[in-house]
Amino acid sequence: MTASIDGPDLEFSGVTKIFSGRAVVRRVSLTVQPGEFIAVLGPSGSGKSTLLKIAAGFEFPDEGCILLRGKDVTTEPPYRRNVNTVFQSYALFPHMSVADNVAYGLRRKKVPQTEIAHKVKEALALVGLHRFWDNSPTTLSGGEQQRVALARALVNRPAVLLLDEPLSALDLKIRRRMQIELKRIHQEVGTTFLFVTHDQEEALVMADRIVVMREGALEQVGTAREIYDAPVTPFVADFVGELNWLDANASSGAAILSDGAQIKLPEASQHRRGPVRIGFRPEKMRLAPIDAVIGPQDNGVRATITSVTFQGPITTVDLRLTDGMIVRCQSSATDTIELPEKGGTVLCLWQIGSTLVFDASPTEQT
Ligand SMILES: Nc1ncnc2c1ncn2[C@@H]1O[C@H](COP(=O)(O)OP(=O)(O)O)[C@@H](O)[C@H]1O
Ligand SMILES: [Mg+2]
User: Fold this and answer.
1) Ligand 1 atom nearest 165 alpha carbon
2) pLDDT tens across 130-143, in order?
3) Which atom of ligand 1 is nearest to the CA of 198?
């Protein structure tokens, strides 16, 4: 192993990348600490792959710089950077054995044969594929092939492993298994991971911190909890999980709906005045009889049930508020045993503390 250096493993500092006159990565600054698992999350076209390629040296920024373990590598080619990349396509050599695929980079670096054998064995054990040493990659499943690609990328212990939607080609069940597997591998090797995905669930499950990208810029950086419970913009709130939105007018610590119903605002939003968007998550809402008392910590609005959908572990109830807005309630099946029928009128309750408040302005900036 290289001598450990204090400070971050990877830093983007004011990185901008322009393609055909358009900035596809915009002033990105991000510091990745040793051993972190960072997920870069964003919709297709938001600049995730470009950001990763800039870290790898496959693209060069128009502005800003990249530091790897404190060293400026902005203009260095990929082979001079102590990083490796795993792509969605496995890109294994079909005519070579699994072991030779993993050994490839070490051989090119002229690492002694005995050391190669030892390292390859270790890397294949890490991904649970030591049995497949002599196999051709073509005989392996998609999940197994991706694990070979992972072993190949980790065998020379890079400072940072870059992963660009590595699980996207796998079907859902295998993908879920690989998410857990990848997390275990990360913990075992302790290498810094920068993992790109457009799948919010994948990011929530896997990452220590999530970086939400939108149109080339970082919209929010935080733990899964922070991103989910305290999104800083409506974009983040909408992109990560589902949200109910209500348009309202804020004054004196409350937001008033068009029918006069009041939503109490959380402490940090008491100062709000004028048009706002109120958000709350479907699973944070519960239904109560129409004459139930609204507790001091709760918000409550009346609504009519428009549909009830049983989905096994959860039940989804769609409701229409008296002013016409639509909201959704999701709860575990056991909570909804006494669920009123479609057409019934109920009280929708959720905690003031889980009420999100944003500006109503179309720019969506808060
Ligand atoms: N080599 C390139 N030349 C021109 N435009 C590019 C190039 N690579 C990416 N883009 C554009 O940059 C934007 C971001 O692309 P990308 O980083 O691949 O996004 P993501 O990985 O988030 O889907 C897209 O609009 C894409 O079309
Ligand atoms: Mg991409």
Assistant:
1) 21
2) 899 999 999 999 99
3) 22
Residue 54 beta carbon below 6 angstroms from any ligand 1 atom: no
Name, in order, each residue with C-beta under 8 angstroms of 84's C-beta and a sequence gap of 6 or more.
153, 154, 156, 158, 161, 162
Return the residue whose CA atom lies nearest to atom 17 of ligand 1.
47
Structure tokens at 114: 């005995």
**What are the tens digits of pLDDT across the range 194-253?**
999 999 999 999 999 999 999 999 999 999 999 999 999 999 999 998 999 999 999 989
Total Cβ atoms within 10 A of residue 168: 15
Is residue 276 located within the same domain as residue 172? no
CB burial of residue 94 (10 Å; 0-12, 13-18, 19+): exposed
For ligand 1, whether the C-beta of 40 sits within 6 Å is no
Nearest CA to ligand 1 atom 18: 49
Separation of CA 44 and ligand 1 centre (Å): 9
CA distances from 56 to 70, 85, 91, 284, 341 (A): 15, 7, 17, 41, 56
Which among 237, 259, 279 is the end of a domain? 237
Read off the pTM. Answer: 0.90
Name residue 366's amino acid. Answer: T
Assess whether the C-beta atom of 216 lies below 6 angstroms from ligand 1.
Answer: no
Domain range enclosing 156: 10-237
Number of structural domains (the chain) is 2
Contacts of 210 (CB under 8 A, 6+ apart): 38, 39, 41, 203, 204, 220, 221, 222, 223, 224, 227, 240
Query: Best of 12, 20, 50, 162 to mutate for ligand 1, by most ligand atoms within 8 A of CB?
Result: 50
d(CA 149, CA 205) in angstroms, rounded, equals 22
Residues 267 and 298 in one domain: yes
Query: DSSP class of residue 353?
Result: G
Residue to mutate (ligand 1; options 15, 19, 28; most atoms within 8 A of CB)? 19
- Is residue 46 within 6 Å of ligand 1 at its C-beta? yes
